[in-house]
């Protein structure tokens, strides 16, 4: 029997509606007296041992974490959905996973704190005055429409749990790279500054690193792109022709595929400026390295974490997976990831788990009232310091582009691989 995507979605939504009246807050089912095992595939950003241990203790389930590089886990998830139950990565992976039938609809009525989720995910921006940013804002990918397409019109079924998110840029060692002024002099063009030739590193992910470099090329005045969130094949030809010259001249130290790898590059002095994620910045600060997370005048590259349910997950394991999703919005996890610079979609619940000094620094952009510890117990913020970029609202009001799988994705992937292979 052959069934098209629209028929499959229709059947899935009908099935979900039929069980909507059941007790959605019940504890995970236990089969034959054994704890359910939920296999979670994702990156080092959220698949951390402290989170696994706490979740198992709180929920009475078993979790198997399989962290890897962004491109690696996306390929596995899209081609082998039977190998995981939950997938944790970024919203730019949603179109790939959805088109591959690798994930199933999530019933938002089973998400316990859904009504607490803030407007960023559901509407595309935190405040009416905030920039939406180019590319796929998460609200464009969240709701499953009646015809099986994805869109911003609210429905009862979603493609992902909105949870961890942040704005990214690049980090630089301020003991070598002169400190800039946030939103005024700091610029993506710094990644192509000849002064740092041979000591620049980029994240190895075509739907992320490509935008860092496109923003850099445009900021340096080497090319102008009509829509940086939807580059045409001609744009890609222009972009990589420029980047190839830099590569041949030895400008790039290399690429990294995990947060620990990016930390190693800067801590060893091999890179003085590089694409970076927030935990790496605070890890380096904890090691005594004066790493600054830039606030580019052109705007940030933003991302939104997604937790997706495998199309192959059923029964007691599916019940346990829903409990794990609900746990992520229960307060403690959001406070934990705040201490490494990330935000959660319902921050007010996590506020209860943070000290006043922590809330004021991480979310409000105020000077730290005391030294603040990171997730490893090291001091990552000194008393009196302000967060790079300021408050949650200010940072998310300055989005240049969202991580996006563009219409030219196949062409961008070919160019990216050729760029790395060269």
Mean pLDDT: 90
Strand percentage lies at: 15-25%
The helix fraction, in percent, is 25-40%
Low-confidence segments, given as residue ranges, are: 1-32
Task: Label the structural class.
Answer: alpha/beta
Rg over CA atoms, rounded to whole Å, is: 21 Å
Query: How many E-type strands?
Result: 17
N- to C-terminal separation?
A: 46 Å
> Tell me, what's the shape?
globular
What composes the largest sheet?
Answer: 11 strands, mixed
The number of helical runs is 16
Topology:
Blueprint: H1 5-18, E1 37-42, H2 49-59, E2 62-67, H3 70-79, E3 86-90, H4 94-99, E4 103-104, E5 106-107, H5 119-123, H6 139-142, E6 143-144, E7 150-151, E8 157-158, E9 161-173, E10 200-203, H7 209-219, H8 233-248, E11 252-256, H9 259-267, E12 273-276, H10 278-286, E13 291-293, E14 300-310, H11 315-328, H12 332-338, H13 347-351, H14 356-362, E15 372-373, E16 379-381, H15 392-396, E17 399-402, H16 409-421
Describe the structure.
With 422 residues, the protein is of the alpha/beta class. Helices cover 35% and strands 18% of the residues. Strands 1, 2, 3, 4, 9, 10, 11, 12, 13, 14 and 17 form an 11-stranded mixed β-sheet that branches. A two-stranded antiparallel ribbon has the order 5-8. A two-stranded antiparallel sheet has the order 6-7. Helix 8 packs parallel to helix 16 and helix 9 packs across helix 10 (278-286). The longest helix has 16 residues, at 233-248. Mean pLDDT is 90; it is low at 1-32.
